[in-house]
Every structure is written in structure tokens, then in C-alpha cells.
Amino acid sequence: MEKIFDLLVLGGGPGGYLCAERAAQGGMNVCLFEKKSLGGTCLNEGCIPTKTLLNSAKLYRHATESDSFGVHTQDVTYDHAKVIARKNKVVNALVSGVGATMKTNNVTVVSAAGVIRGREDAGFLVEANGEVYIGKKLVIATGSEAAVPSFPGVKEGLASGFVLTNREVLDETQLPKKMVVIGGGVIGLEMAYYYASVGTEVTVIEMMPKIAGATDPEICKVLTDSFSKRGMTFKLSCKVLEIKESSVVYEDAGQICEIPCDKVLLSVGRRPATAGIGLENLNLLMDRAAIVVDRFLCTNISGVYAIGDCNGKLMLAHTAYREAEVAVNHMLGRVDEMRYDVIPSVIYTDPEVASVGLSKEAAEGRGMNVKEVKLPMSYAGRYLAENEGGKGFIKIVVDTDKNRLVGCHMVGSYASEIIMTATMMLDTELPPVRLQKMVFPHPTVAEIIREAIFHI
User: Is residue 125 within 8 Å of 116, Cβ to Cβ?
Assistant: First the structure.
């Protein structure tokens, strides 16, 4: 039996479920398809579970490194299995919350994979569990999946459980003595930091000469030095050649090396999850695995939108949230469009890293005349009070021709929370003289932004 809706949404991750919610609130009759659990990678295998683990690791580190603050502890232990159990409790609560939100907004949720079968006069056809659903409009929000490299031993390692992706590592209840993390990007660093903080001997192998991808090189050095002091080992500019039964073989400056370990974590990036969902039945314009969209999230097929990781723009949950809102507003005839230049990004290690906008080098590459201000985080009294020997700093980048901020980059405590202050400054495009009049609560680490603005 055919079921007709105003909107069909493929994928129940951050982009998909918010899209369904906003569309329903806008008066549309919505059907959402999710083959696993509502919340997608973010809630179940990414953002939320990793932050739950990282918070426990931070508490443990504070307990074991508190002598310099006058707090003496002994016999501190870490129960990784209990941490995993708490992670599951947090995830289940949030997933249930998404389900309740869908029910409150009268969104029909189909717990199955939806496959696009084409288009007819009545709308777009999606099949799930043997039933056909018709939607006047279609949103593709199928997210991304971990990229799996093809070097020898990967397939066998995944089958045996020796090799893990971001999904399996979050359900490990035993701490390995030695772990090799292949890939020094955001996900790899966060999990490497977690395991190293709670007693695992961690080695990170990265093909590039520095960790953290496109992150500011000076910030990368702070992270590398900080992590190294805590026992992490970095093999940079190195290429993995093979995974054996209990070791990883890699090339370092022409030399073949081998590291024995108990577990291997693959973290070499993510790719849009667009295979097997019937895209070929719509002839969508693609860029490899990514669905091509414009600033309204429209594809080349009228009535079809692609939001979140599947469009390959910025693989961040908060990007998907905003894309969902823009797509729904476009459907409802409201003026709105995406701005990718003011989306913040964060690395949730300790110290934290956060940035928004352009670096000095990137801005100059676009022909801008800019000024960069760099200050140590210790200019903020609270940072100095709460950090012993912290090397954090902030950089702000100002377009001197247009007299506005175009970038902010920082490393230090609370960076993930205070980057939004800089994001709003970039988004509003207010001149520095106006920003200087904003009053910050004292003492807060966020005051470092005010200090930097007064040094322009």
C-alpha cells in the first residue's frame, strides 16, 4: 500500500531528525527513515559517546595530577567498564529523547533503510520493508561512514576484533595495554587522548608531518608537546604498510618498522554514506560519493535536498543542524541560506582546540589585508588560576580593509565553550571598536577574546 507524505527524510541523524522536526512544525506531513538508531553517528557512535568518555578521563587525570593544586590523592583507580556503561546510559537517554520529539511532532518514523525507487507524478518513491512511500519532497541525510584503508590485514583484523573503527572502540569494556591509532585527525586524537589518559600506551601513526589536519601549526605543536608529555608517541610522515595479527608495520623515512600492540584503531577519515540508497534512480549530480548541493541545500533535481555529511561540505553535526533548517526554510518559502565561513570546529582533548573562520595564511591567500593578534591564555585570570603550566593561546585575524574579524583560533581550557563568542562576532561582522564595548563576566577564560580585540 502506498503512503503519501509532504516530505520523506532518509536518515535519522542530527540533520535528518532536526529536518523532520522543523518541517513538521512548519505544517508538513513527514516520514523519517532510520535503519539503526535515531540520532545517527553523532548520538550513537560519535560526538556524545566520545565526550562522555573524555569527561571521565579528565576527572581521572585531575585526580591523579592534583598535587600542584594542593590536593593529594592516593589509590585512585579507573573502571573503564563502568565508564562504558555510563556512556550507554547517556546515549540511550538522548536517543529516547529524539524519539519522543518525533512523536510529539507527529513525525512518522520507519525503523528501516529507505531505498529511492525513482519519481512519478505523485512524488518521490522510497521503499522500506516492502512498502512504498511517496513524498512530494525528499531530503537525503544518510550521513557518513568510517573510511577503511585497503592495506593488507585490515579485513582480517576487523573480523577478529583486533582492528577497530570508531563504532567498535566505543563498546570495548577492557583497556588494552598497547594501542596503535592509524590517523592523527580529530577522531583519532580524541580517542588516542582518552586511552592514553587512562593508562594505555598509545602510538599515533600519521602520514602528514603534523597532527590535527588543517589546524593551525602552532596549535598542533602545543597538542603534540602536551600529549607527548603524557606518554603518547607520534610517528609523523609515516605510512602504514600492513596490519599483522598483533602488530602494525609502517614505513618511516625509508625504514620498515613494526609496533606490537593489543588493539588497532582505524581513524583515517570518513566518507559520505551514499551507496546502496538508490541515488542512481534520480540521476543526482555527484562529486565522488558526495551529493552536490547549492547554498540552499538543493540538488540538481527539483524537490530533492541533501544535508549533513552526505553532501561532503563540512562533516560536523552542528553543520547538519543548520543545513536542516536552511533546507526546510527553502521548502517553506522562507529567505535563508548557508554560510560555511562562520561554522566553528572543536577538538575535545585536554587542552581543547577550537577555531572559526580563516587563518592569517588562508585570508592572505584570498587576497585580504589582515592583521593577526596572538595572546597567551594566561592573560585571562581564570585560565592562570585553573591551569598549572598551561601553554594555551588565542589568535584572532582581522580584515583591516573591511574592519572586521574573519578568524579566531585557540587552544586551552573551555575553548569549546567560548568559541561561540567569536563565532557571533564573525557572523555579525561588527567592527572591533563596537566589539570592545561588550562586557564579559570576570573572571572567565572567555575574557581572552576581549583582551585580543583590544590588542588589534
Answer: yes
Inter-CA distances, 60 with 49, 74, 75, Å: 17, 12, 12
Question: 125-164: per-residue pLDDT in tens?
Answer: 999 999 999 999 999 999 999 999 999 999 999 999 999 9
Q: Domain 154-268 belongs to what topology?
A: FAD/NAD(P)-binding domain (3.50.50)
Question: What is the CATH code of the structural domain delimited by 351-453?
Answer: 3.30.390.30
- Annotated catalytic sites, by residue? 442
Cell of 446: 572567555
**From residue 41, how far is each of 96, 273, 308 by CA, in Å?**
15, 11, 11
Q: Assign 31 to helix, strand or coil.
A: strand
- Greatest pairwise CA separation for the chain in angstroms: 73
Report how far residue 323's alpha carbon sits from residue 304's, in angstroms, rounded to the nearest whole number. 14
Task: Tally the C-alpha atoms within 13 A of residue 345's C-alpha that lie toward its C-beta.
Answer: 17
Q: Look up the CATH architecture of domain 3-145+271-340.
A: 3-Layer(bba) Sandwich (3.50)
Q: What is the pLDDT of residues 171-195, one digit of tens each?
A: 999 999 999 999 999 999 999 999 9
